[in-house]
Amino acid sequence: MTTILDFRQGVAQRLLREGRRYEAKGDLSAAADTYRRAVEMDPDFCPARLALADQYRKLGRFEEALEQCRIAVELMPDAHTHLQLAQLLMELGHFAEAESALLHVLRDEPENNVARFTLAFLYYRRRDYATAITEFYRVAQLDPNWATFFFLGDCYFSLERFDVAQRVWKTALLYATSSDEFDLTRNALQRVRRYLEFPQRDYADLKAHYYREDGVVYLGTAEDDGLHIPPYISHDFTFRDIAVTLRRLVALLEALGMTFDAVAPVDIVSLPLALALSHWWGTRTEPLPTDHVLLVQALGREAASLRMVAEEQMSAITFCLSVGWREPWLPDLIGVVAPLKSSVPWYAPDAPHADAQCQLDRADHLAQTLLQEMHTLPPDPNLDAQLAYYTEQHRLLRFAPAPRLQ
After folding, report:
1. Mean pLDDT score, 254-271
2. How confident is the model at residue 405 (pLDDT cuts 50, 70, 90)?
3. Which InterPro entries match (predicted)?
């Protein structure tokens, strides 16, 4: 005889299946609502609570997700529920409680490699790299995979054991199963190889810092010698300043054998720079989709505009005269990094009415002024040393063809 309890359990199971269909279609809100109805129909139905918790997590409703996970653990205190609770706690930064839940799983199932990896990753997130290394090696013994070796390498890198990090990341490369994993690992290997180029690290050396971290070129301006570049808080560029930076840019790109089909500005303020460079090389400023392009930005207040244009152009290298944003992404070539507002002679950053048409009409005249400055500059006394820095000593540039990994 079918009881009310059997009926409610049957309806809850049907709603769980229905919610999974919504989830497969990507309709997270409908999936969450359906799982919630399943829980209301049968409050003791643990799979529905776990599914609801997962949907709440995906929707950013973390406290509600945590509540559902805790109830699920009370209903069914097995490895699966404790593991899902631990993963959510770790995502919320509750590391001590997450560690306790994971250790509970591993006491019952010592070879649960998902729990072991999650525990290792928890120590990694907590920056307890020595403990994380021990746990990642235990995971690797049971199930060697890309993620384990990748994060293991990052632990060694964070401890400045760069030679070991390099060896581990080479192993990770062997286990990469997707282009994303392969690219992430190659980038990590390039980064550690750049660090290994500096046996003695001066962390006040900005030119070395931006090269080591991101493989980008730091050119400087007329206030420095191109090798020892002081911190710039802001910078009001003169025509001579800009000409010095552009001369260094041109000399380096020509020394690297790089040519462009077009030099394109990302905004109206950057047009005089792009025109000056396009006149110098005899290229156009309106690129075709297949062109090899140098994208030019004068004053970088935020990364989105330059990055978005670079992603749309199939083959582009990026240059920004003054980078002022806080985002971690950087262009390939930088004049200076100045966290406060910089300016160029034809643009006042605080002007209430910047006349775009006037700037457009004046752009070619401004470009000719820049070209005249570039042509009349005295020789840069240490230009050979500036070029050797990137063509002979530190060649692992992000935008240049990478030397073959050994």
Report:
1. 94
2. very low
3. CellSynth/LPSAsmb/PSIAsmb, TPR-like_helical_dom_sf, TPR_rpt
Write the CATH number for 363.
Answer: 3.40.50
How far apart (Å, rounded) are the C-alpha atoms in residues 102 and 114? 10
Enclosing domain of residue 219: 206-393
| pLDDT at res. 58 | 83
Tell me if 335 sits within 8 A of 219, measured CB to CB. yes
pLDDT band at residue 1 using 50, 70 and 90 as cut-offs: very low
Mean pLDDT in residue range 277-292: 91
